[in-house]
Amino acid sequence: MSSTCTVSILGCYAAAPGAFKNPTSQVLNIRNHVFLIDCGEGTQVALRRNKIKFVRIKHIFISHLHGDHFFGLMGVISTFSLLKRTAPLTIYGPVGIKEIVLLQLKLMQNFTSYPLHFKELSSKEPELVYEDDAVTVTTIPLQHRIYANGYYFQEKEGDRKLDINAVLNLNIDKAYFNKIKQGGDVTLEDGTIVPNSELTFDPPKPKSYAYCSDTRYKPVIADQIQNATALYHESTFLDSHEHLCKPTGHSTAKQAASIAKQANVENLILGHYSTRYNDLEAFREEAETIYPNVHLADDGKVFTF
Amino acid sequence: MSSTCTVSILGCYAAAPGAFKNPTSQVLNIRNHVFLIDCGEGTQVALRRNKIKFVRIKHIFISHLHGDHFFGLMGVISTFSLLKRTAPLTIYGPVGIKEIVLLQLKLMQNFTSYPLHFKELSSKEPELVYEDDAVTVTTIPLQHRIYANGYYFQEKEGDRKLDINAVLNLNIDKAYFNKIKQGGDVTLEDGTIVPNSELTFDPPKPKSYAYCSDTRYKPVIADQIQNATALYHESTFLDSHEHLCKPTGHSTAKQAASIAKQANVENLILGHYSTRYNDLEAFREEAETIYPNVHLADDGKVFTF
User: Could you give the subunit structure recorded for this chain (chains A, B) (predicted)?
Assistant: First the structure.
């Protein structure tokens, strides 16, 4: 069954945190999984302010090893221990993340109260890093100054929905319901075969969320995330600063919109704004010249799909 | 010349940061030196909010390797680079601090724009770690769950103050003034020796600031910091939780006051409160049963001595 999916923006500004501008972190709630994506300095405080229950976070996905995306990770890991957490936690991120965490835990003489696992990444191709009955997570290789991945969170297609009236009318026994929901036809006692299409409705379209930060304009991303429900794509710059994209490894709002259009996504969320800009509306206006359904991330905002 | 000395509290709460309670960090301004002491998560944001100029910080003193005292260090180091700092920065802290910082800088592929020095500490005796014409800094060995030092910041005694009327009355040439300020007597042309005490006033009493966090009650600290202008001493607990001091390596407000009294300091600042307490006044009341001049640290407060 498809359910509501929410993205809570804890921080969405590039580089050093400002007095009131948080570096990157966000929480995706999809099929009752609470995934923490990136973890800039101050993330644990932002989690508290946004009333997100620490214990529900079981997986943290780090895009790359620049400080504005991971300096809050040690604080989160330590505070989970202070709270006497017992549930396992898995960190996904570039090779090196494990050494950074374990070195500090060792020197702090302060190991975690819960099992801490790492899935270190080094592939330049998309890689399935998480899967369960309801959801998969695949890396989206990005092009930044250092090794970086976005993450593509996808609901699995749910079971077909039973047409209760149809099965009752045909006196079909409950024992067959699971088989029917999984797409099976039914043979009645008189030998008649009732095709599945007369017993069920299509399941809701699975939802999906693509997180892409930080990256240069990389059109191949669009191939991987075709028809996603929502794409968060960094837009550090406006087109007027496009010349800064190559040396810094970032994108403009226009380029983000171009990816959204090529991928035919339903929603585009812009973020990772350079703090040089005061007016975020300029990002929306620029992106809307290419693609219509543009949302602006901002600290504390929650998007529901 | 002695000048005003200020202590700006950026954060003074124990353990995990709360939504509006910062972990430990403070800025000491003494003889125009701006020393950053400890560096919990969020310190760089607190520096901005307190309008402290980053470029004036040339020395950072870390007491020990628990997260609430150093998780903000990488953010400060990185942001200094983003601001294209060129002035050298020196970090003082337990052995291991250098490895923690350099590992992360290496993996970030992002070396500093300025010379970064480390003075790693491992001695269990007081150690002079910084000295210039005006100020010395000496470690104060503490007793915590892991290796920890406080720091004792002391102004050097300044030159004696010239009694302008006296030297003019005696027609003493300006060429002798420096010698007189340094304590020398003067021989007049007729052979009379004028003792220094008739030509100068005593210099102002040098100021000193002792920072002690985190530590169990350790009376020998009082011997080292006799007559300090101000002592910041942790008071994680009230006396009602005194039984928690030994296992956690912390002190009560009463114990902090006892150190202040034994050291005959002029001012005691309490801080590093456990977040279990809502009313900080209870810390003051408890300490004042032992020692009279008690101040309560709180985030954003500035103390002037």
Answer: Homodimer.
